[in-house]
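Workshop exercise sheet. Pairs work together: one partner reads the sequence aloud, the other fills in the structure field after running the prediction. Swap roles for the next sheet.
Pair: D.N. / O.F.
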Amino acid sequence: SLYHNEGLLRLVLLHTAWEVGSAQVRYSVPEESKHGTFVGRLAQDLGLEVAELVSRMFRMVSSGRRDYFEVNLQSGVLFVNSRLDREELCGRNPLCAIDLEVIVDKPLKIFHVEVEIQDINDNAPVFPVNEQNLSIAESLTLPGSRFPLEGASDADIGTNSRLTYKLSPSEHFTINVQTNEEQSKSLVLVLKQSLDREETPAHHLLLTATDGGKPELAGTVQLLITVLDVNDNAPSFNQSSYKVRLLENAANGTMVMKVNATDLDEGINKDILYTLRGVTQPHVSATFRIDSNTGEISVNGELDFENTKLHEVRVEATDKGNFPLSGHCNVFVEVLDVNDNAPELIITSHSLPVPEDAPPGTVVALISVSDRDSGDNGKVTCSIPPNLPFRLVSTFKNYHSLVLAEAVDRERVSEYKIVVTARDEGAPSLSASSSILVAISDVNDNAPAFPQPVYTVFVRENNPPGAHLLTVSASDPDLRENAFVSYSVVERSVGEQPLSSYISVHSESGHIYALQPLDYEELQVLQFQVSARDAGLPSLCGNVTVQLFVLDANDNAPAVSPAVSPAGSVRGHVVGKIRAVDADSGYNAWLRYEVQEPGAAGPFRVGVYSGEISTTRALEEADGPSQRLVILVKDHGEPSLSATATVSLSLVESPQAVKWDSRPRGGSEGPLVDMNVSLMITICSVSGLFVLVIVVYVGLRCHPGPEVMCGAGKATVVCASEVGSWSYSQRQSRNLCVGEGTAKNDLMVFSPNFPNCAEKSGTVKEQELAPNSSGQVILRGSDTFIKNTQTSGKSLIGSG
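Structure field:
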């Protein structure tokens, strides 16, 4: 390929270029290189592994131009992708380079690459016209006279644009090149000897311009020189060159300057016409015009400092003689820059969206700015609004990086609209702005949270299995799977059973269900924790405490308790006590005692809340030898539950007539009870008659009134077998034996005579009972003893 082997120059300079961690690499490549031309081993020069280019998302961005270069990701080689024309890219600027940005991720790094486009000699010198005409007067024009010619131009630069001129062989003319103070070269035709129109009326010459490139390129123009007769004075300007400064963007018609030429001839040979003659830049004729009569030069097109900074205008003054003569001068128009170009912004976004846990310093976007103006008008500063978690970092030339300045929180702000403003330092300054939308991506940085630390729920016992108890709900401000909450119970033991045997929670809805009926009598309060866990990686969780209070239901009927001694609050009248218990609580366990058939109670009554059976009056023989009471025990629940106890009461006269069977009852308890009742009635009748005779006898001798006398007497006995209550009551020397039909054991109490009666009228005392080795319980402090194999340790004994 053209200049591929010999014209390729590669210069690599590696050094630290900016604070984010990048390097600068500079290459050179000739213009007009074909597609695929090798530029450099970019990956190797940047210190990157070729095998990691794809995984690190290697990419290259050109600064505002099309993709002239590409990188082979398999080899890491930078090569030419499209045609490179230095003259098209940079015009006549001596330095022509294309800036590239190379970006890789994991970690994010940015490298600046500059590729210089080298000029090759691909443009031949070009003359503005194919033929130039000159008129020179014979004889009057002396040897050494100089005639300006229109020089050639070469679009290349440097040596490739260094022109040399050669004139075809002529004995009358030669070529000379002059360099003025503006470093502009003027081409003149020099007359070597006088002309003779009659000998040669016209001269045809070929002027060749050759550049300094390799190989050389050349351009030619035909010179037609007409030899004129007479009119021996040509117009002349007061100076050969003029210099003027003019602001760019001057309006059409703006006067640049006025030139003036004089002619020493007379008449029409003195009259002068002005024209714009030779120009080295083709666009000058479209930019300026001259008044042919006055020589006033004015703006005819657009003056743009960014396109052309200096215009060279050649003015020709020609008289009106029959054989016109002309004079020439150069006008150099320097265009002054004005701040007429606003800065240009190009934003290349990277690393979007930005994770909310990205560390400060993370590069978000690359920003390149440019201003076609020069000086202060071309100095550009970039800025973003304050109070944003971002900042701009100047990296390389007119490049900036938008980096993260502080931590961001997506739950607080999910996206930022950042307006980047570029402002130059001109007067007045111009600015341009561009916006970038920086989205913040979610990371799992928020654990699910419950709206309250403790949930309290009240559940009535005996709930059906699977009953819904309550619903807990946790919220997670994250997004998608990071906000998907699942619920579970924190396992622990409740007694000997796991918590999961009592309750369960739906993993998605948070509904809590009871797996089995709850029993208040077994469990009053169940406290446990529910965990809410999101689906993020790693997952986060939050806990809440649930307090479940079991409410009592009236599901337990009263039950008669084992035998205990009565409290004896109504001393002398209490003959027994019914004591029942209820496994419920509150009103459901508040018991009430009453006789099921009040009409059959006879001389007895039962305490409504104490359960004590007492006499309502003195016992009489008319009351019969025995009584049978059915006691109804019921609670205050809704609905009320109840139980009944049957109590048999017998009147006896002598304790010898009473015999109790203390053996436990078997399964056929009904017939034995009936037998005991019959036997008890018989024994109590005989004993009662005997005791009655003794009591009457003692009463008549000791005291005339009905009051009981304290002295020697026969033993009295009280019998009872009602479960849970044993009582003794004596009134008017009558002995009462009380027994329940379903008793589990019997009791016999023997009481001797008391020599000194400390209490009268049947006062009741409570004594401590202590069982001996044979199961007997001895009443300490007296000779009385009790035979009972299942006593609870106390018995209430009354004096008699």
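Discussion prompt: The first strand starts at residue 16 and ends at 18. What would you look at next?
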